[in-house]
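Sample intake sheet
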Amino acid sequence: MPTSKSAVDLGHLAQGTAKVYIYYRCALSLVLLGMYYSGAASNIFGTDNPQLYQLAAIGYGAATSLTVAMLLMSRGQTRNNLLLFSYFLIDLIALTLLMHSSGGLSSGLGLLMMITVAASSLVFTNQLALLTAALASILLLAEELISAYLLNDNNRAIFPAGLLGFVLFLTAALFRILNQRLRHSEQIALRESDQSAHLQDLNEMIIQRMLTGIVVIDVSGKIELINNAAIEMLGASKTGTALGSGTSLRAIPLLQIGYETWLKQPWKKMPAFKVSGSNTEIQAKFAHLERSENKSTIIFLEDTRTAAQNAQRLKLASLGRLTGSIAHEIRNPLGAISHAAQLLAEEQGGNQSSQRLSEIIIKHTQRLNQVIENVSQLSRRKAPDAQSLHLDQCLHDFVEDYQLSCPHSCTIEIDIEDPAMIIVFDTSQLHQVLTNLLENAHRHSLEYSAQAWAKCICHIDPVSQRPCLDLYDRGEGISADVAAQIFEPFYTTSHTGSGLGLYLARELCEINFATLDYQLAEKDRPGFFRIGFAHPEQAQQRLHND
């Protein structure tokens, strides 16, 4: 709704001054009326014309009471300059009438105009302040002139009225300068307040988006601030624990014990720990925020897996360059050995023992060649050609091709929560990951249940809202100790495996902004591998930025 020219924002200073003055004028009218009827100043107020004083006081009181009612109805907002100026004009006229009925300047009521002029100078920044002072001076002089010449009142003095008019102009000028300085200070304060609020919002946003968990607690152990990373690390979203301002640190017993230990032994490093409902291993560090007696403590929570992964990447980067060059040098003599073994088997003809030895040589050269292929793939890992895929169609196509190429009979069941589920992944790399996981699932199922069986369950994770693929088998399962090592390179529990399959699968998931983890068995379900795909919109945005 458009605002008229007379309806402008007066600012905090003018708003406050206007509201105080409105209450003041109402109180003044009631005091003047009350003093008149009580007879407390009968020798001062209304001495010349009691009836005029009475009518002016009653009218003034009614007008000011109506003004207060309007202020309360507008919820303390006074934005109309012309309306405010009319209040000042009514006050000047009322004071002039009261002064005239009480003997003129000798009653002292003319001095009250100084308050009106001063308030006007604090409310208005334009010429209305000087206009108020001019009208007050004109009314004073007019009252004295009318009384002296028209009413033949010889007790009236023109010079004091003119002197008071000059004082009113001086008051208006001084308070106008004061108003300008106060408004300038107000603008500076508002700018600094806005900047402070902006910095506070910015700091809060940075803290909430940090990957490092931040928890601030007071001396009593209550949480003052906690960011999203800390809530996720501490497993609050999974266990339903409410962590926020006012929550006691006792809600996280292990962290509470570490905090109490740190207070007694600040030099001692707290060991890494895991909380119930979270698989993340956390390293906590403590520091005082202030040096006062009532000082808060900030707790930094770091995921130890991140540091371990960074260290491992540095080692594997160097190892990759070395193994890549070694693999290149091994490939040629290995091919020669394999070719020689094949020729030797052909020359031996029907010699079963020689053929058996040749088959062993060929088999192990092929196994060694596969290791070389895996190592070479690690050293020359290419960036993914990620694209949006319908998980349902993509998974069914892959399973159909996999079963056709599988050397033995196998069963793969598929259960998809939403057929329209979208993921972002490189198709060839996704096939490589699934091939590795299904081969492991079928091998372990055959060893334990004599049936190559696997089941894929696709769903949306209720906590992260990310698409997930859970892969089950009928194997014996993996213990917690082994599960912590299965994704390390060259670690294997199979006599024929290279130990690079799961490591390579996780690496391929990571470059596609996905995760690959093993979920340990619980009472109501067996253990399984889970691929946590990136949220489609976030993955596309990150790929675009990269």
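Comment: The radius of gyration is 44 Å. The first strand starts at residue 213 and ends at 217.
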